[in-house]
Amino acid sequence: MLSRQLARLLVRRDRRVASRAEAERIRRAVSGSDPEGDPAERVLGPDGRPAEAVANTAFPIGTLAGDPSRVLTLERADVLESHSVTYGGTGAGKTVLWLSIAAQELRRMFGRIARGLPPDTAIMVIEPKHDLAPQFLLLLEHLLSAEPSWVIERVLANVTTFGPLGRFVVPIPILQPPSGVAPEVHAMALSNLVGRLSGSAFGPKQQPLLAVILLCLHAAGLTLPEGVALLGDWTALRSLARQSPHPMVRDYFQEAVRVPSGLDGIRARLLRLVFTPNLRAAFAAREGLDFDASLAPGQIVIHDLGGSIGDEDLTDFFCGFSFGELSQAIRRRPNGAPPVIGILDEFQLILQGDGNVGERVAKLLQTARSRGVALHLLTQGPASVSAVSPQILSAVHTNVSSEILGPTDDVRSLAHLLPVTGRRPRARSLPWEAPPASPWVSRDEELRQLLEETQALPPRHFWVRAKRRAQKATLVRTLDFHLPPSRDPRLAERLERGRLGRTLAELEHARREDGTSARLRVVPGAAAAPIGRRRPRGL
């Protein structure tokens, strides 16, 4: 009896000692004086917020599910230098999680501007559903409303909102190849994108024909709407192509005596691109959106690629366009460039394409990491990714450093993220049952229980695993983060417009002032040329 009491006293003493040691370790981790402590687990300050030392070195994302007094953070290196993937069904809270992380970085950026320091990061949001982008714009409005007017103007000068299906027109010189890209390569890539329109794929002769036509239009200095108008006149198009500086174009049209059978299908798809007045005005530009400039420090870029019901083909087209242009811009960045935080919602829709998609995604992630672009991928679950391409999922898991798992229907395929320890206590047996051989459940039973618990997680609860710390996943409840409704309509409109957005009336007025016109003068045997002064292409 005495030995049992002594044993209990020793166990209690050991627990008190361990508790004091744990508290001291956390205190040192927060203050940065304990290099061996786990920097991911921090304690909250007296006001319920993370200590200032934490905010300067990490992004608090939530409190531990079992201890609300301790907060889990993602180190700045996890957000600025590495990729991540976040899984969670509708309503799980993944959007709120990444909005809270973006808010912390935006506050830091605005603080540097207010102190007269240049920004040292950029933030980019790309999404195809018109869901995250409006909330991100509301977040910007909320944060800027607390800043002085000169800081607001400085930030607005660096905000680019690209919503091709929205109410503001952003000029897109789509026939102009990016810097360092051969016109032939750009024409072929653009013809692949046009092939996504209207559902059915191009025939074996249509895609090369479209690539040759696009190459011809670019060499002649025409815009896409001008080129679509020219496709209705085969004689004028043929005479223009025969004077092209590209031998491929001249040879192709030299042999084409009759109108190719696939020309009507090509013109129909291109007409789909310039059917609305906004898109027609956007593609009529010879300068405008510059993906290289959008990756510069201090830039805040929102690609809102979603539209209303019926615009799914155009959304797919602009997802492919943004993915291709962004990939090229990332490859042109030098090593060691300032970091860029990229948040891609429903990333599988943005990264889809033809051919070996998994290999393309893997190369993009590897190149982006070496060029200072951290891509944080959001999706509802592995099934939605595999539905687009099974290759994307394996490429993502190989190249991300942090994985965040919330409630989702297909959680079984992500079982490797769950912390199976082999030390989950078995439920106490009933008095009439035989005592179990082990006080712990088997590892298979523990995994089954974890899978069921993960599927039933309440909103804003996630398993978080950072590979660089080689730790098991931690269950976190994300921090409270609520956005108030819009209170400044003028600021909200300026954010939605961005630095490049214009209305149709403004573009028409600028066209009249500049004296340019979209009318063509086509002379048989001579190149077609627009009437009026020509503005230089590109920024």
Structural overview:
The chain is an alpha/beta fold and 539 residues long. The chain has two domains: 76-170 and 289-417 and 443-478, Rossmann fold (3-Layer(aba) Sandwich), CATH 3.40.50; 183-284 and 503-530, no CATH class. Helix content is 44%, strand content 13%. The protein has helices at residues 2-31, 52-55, 76-80, 94-114, 132-144, 149-156, 183-194, 206-219, 224-230, 234-242, 247-255, 263-273, 277-283, 312-332, 347-350, 357-370, 382-388, 390-399, 443-455, 489-497, 504-514; strands at 41-43, 58-64, 67-75, 84-87, 122-127, 159-162, 300-304, 340-345, 373-379, 402-405, 461-466, 474-478, 520-521, 529-530. It is globular, with a radius of gyration of 28 Å.
Shape: globular
CATH superfamily of the largest domain: P-loop containing nucleotide triphosphate hydrolases
Total helices: the number is 21
Give the distance, in angstroms, between the N- and C-terminal Cα atoms.
86 Å
Q: Which percent bin holds the helix content?
A: 40-55%
* Strand order of the biggest β-sheet: 1-3-2-12-11-10-4-9-8-5-7-6
Number of strands: 14
Strand content: 5-15%
Provide the domain count. Answer: 2
Structural class: alpha/beta
Most strands sheet: 12 strands, mixed
At CATH level 2, the architecture of the largest domain is 3-Layer(aba) Sandwich
Mean pLDDT: 80
**Low-confidence spans: pLDDT under 50, at least 5 residues?**
25-55, 516-539
